[in-house]
Specification:
This protein has a single domain, classed as Winged helix-like DNA-binding domain superfamily/Winged helix DNA-binding domain (Arc Repressor Mutant, subunit A, Orthogonal Bundle), CATH 1.10.10.10. Helices cover 49% and strands 20% of the residues. It contains five helices and six strands. Strand 2 and strand 3 form a beta hairpin. The longest helix is centred in the middle third of the chain and has 23 residues.
Length: 153
């Protein structure tokens, strides 16, 4: 199998596995390329997005606990991810890329007065204090209402 055929196969699998929002992000990034008619941009974009998902997966494995009854504030997760990524020499992510990666990994966003990601909790960082983000359970969120705090440095 030629390298081009193998890459096309990877693209097809990634496209088939992606949800509608992720596909829209890929297409918008492709169309935002300097020359949208260059089909060679799509493999680079897909490879970058797959790499983003894997980077977020590593962050979750190293810095988060998966707990179906917990919720973590979206801004706390993104700030923590970006600090972790910079320390590793990886690129920072914006809200859209980070959210797409979390959705691809099976997590769900919930909204109360702020956005939460269901099923994740940041692990305490040594030397960091955790401010309470609230002790109330958002009315529409199921479970025991565990809500993690924000990491401050």
């Amino acid at each position: 199998m030629s390298p081009a055929s193998a890459q096309l196969g990877r693209l097809r699998k990634a496209w088939a596995a992606a949800d509608l929002k992720t596909r829209c992000v890929w297409l918008s990034e492709l169309l935002a390329a300097p020359n949208p008619r260059q089909a060679t941009q799509l493999p680079l974009i897909v490879d970058r997005l797959i790499g983003t998902r894997e980077s977020v997966r590593k962050f979750i494995d190293e810095c988060c606990d998966k707990d179906q009854h917990s919720y973590e504030q979206a801004d706390a997760l993104l700030v923590s991810y970006n600090k972790w990524a910079v320390a590793r020499g990886d690129d920072r992510l914006n809200w859209t890329s980070f959210g797409c990666a979390l959705r691809q990994l099976g997590f769900h966003r919930r909204k109360s007065s702020v956005n939460f990601w269901h099923g994740l909790r940041l692990r305490p960082v040594r030397g960091a204090s955790r401010e309470s983000s609230g002790t109330h359970k958002p009315a529409h969120l199921p479970g025991n209402g565990k809500v993690s705090g924000r990491v401050t440095v």
